[in-house]
Amino acid sequence: MDVLYFAWVRERIGLPREKLETSARTVSELVDELVAREERYAAAFADRSALRVALDQELSGFDASLSGVREVAFFPPMTGG
Amino acid sequence: MRISVQEASFDPGQEMNAFASGRKDIGAFVTFTGVVRDTGEQKLQVMEIEHYPGMTEAALRDIAQQAVSRWSLGDVLVIHRYGTLKPGEVIMMVATAARHRKDAFEAAEFLMDYLKSRAPFWKREVTENGATWVAARDADEDALERW
């Protein structure tokens, strides 16, 4: 599974994307796995309410299933326009 | 409908003329142009705009499709830049074409409100005191409720 990070999430984790093998069933479980891995993930995901997630480029929720998902992206609320 | 996510600068006047060219069935064009603004408190050197290639185009197309399904529109144009921009530079533009002005105005406002908080762009302001990511404003999220 490809996991992408944007804006300050990318800066805190220190890379724009990575390939992960995971048995996580939901986005929340994936975040739990990452947070347990290293401090930089814990820093990036410290406040989940300040983050958005997209599954295969569709905005989604942290309780969403990862079944069949190829690309997960984490980012702060958007600021376009 | 034209959606463009691009690094290159553009001329809003030229884009408007091309958008309007040859349309005899349209009574109203509304355009909005966004410009990088220096708020003045801390001198803005550049604005960096990050986006999510692929998702950005799809999100803009989806927002434009929603506008087309809600109002009677002849055409829609959305251009949004990414990369490093200086104060005074054009950052984005929307244009709507309709038989009547109400549809054109409302659809343009809808496009802007959705684009602000549903299109995957992130702005980072670089000043002489350092760089900060622009935080999303609650008012932008609240603006969606009226639609």
TrEMBL record, chain A:
NCBIfam families hit by this protein: moaD
Protein name (Swiss-Prot/TrEMBL): Molybdopterin synthase sulfur carrier subunit
Superkingdom in the source lineage: Bacteria
Similarity remark: Belongs to the MoaD family.
SUPFAM superfamilies: MoaD/ThiS
UniProt cross-references to CDD domains, sorted A to Z: Ubl_MoaD
Keyword terms: Nucleotide-binding
Pfam families membership: ThiS
UniProtKB/TrEMBL annotation, chain B:
InterPro entries linked to this entry: MoaE_sf (IPR036563), Mopterin_biosynth_MoaE (IPR003448)
Top enzyme class: transferase
A Pfam family it matches: MoaE
EC annotation from Swiss-Prot or TrEMBL: 2.8.1.12
Pathway(s) this gene product operates in, as recorded in its UniProt entry: Cofactor biosynthesis; molybdopterin biosynthesis
Catalytic activity line of the entry: 2 [molybdopterin-synthase sulfur-carrier protein]-C-terminal-Gly-aminoethanethioate + cyclic pyranopterin phosphate + H2O = molybdopterin + 2 [molybdopterin-synthase sulfur-carrier protein]-C-terminal Gly-Gly + 2 H(+)
Membrane-spanning residues: none
Coiled-coil regions, chain positions: none
Gene3D superfamilies: Molybdopterin biosynthesis MoaE subunit (3.90.1170.40)
GO molecular function term, any single one: molybdopterin synthase activity
Swiss-Prot/TrEMBL keywords: Molybdenum cofactor biosynthesis, Transferase
Function: Converts molybdopterin precursor Z into molybdopterin. This requires the incorporation of two sulfur atoms into precursor Z to generate a dithiolene group. The sulfur is provided by MoaD.
Sequence similarity: Belongs to the MoaE family.
Subunit (UniProt): Heterotetramer of 2 MoaD subunits and 2 MoaE subunits. Also stable as homodimer. The enzyme changes between these two forms during catalysis.
Protein name from the UniProt record: Molybdopterin synthase catalytic subunit
Source species of the chain: Roseobacter fucihabitans
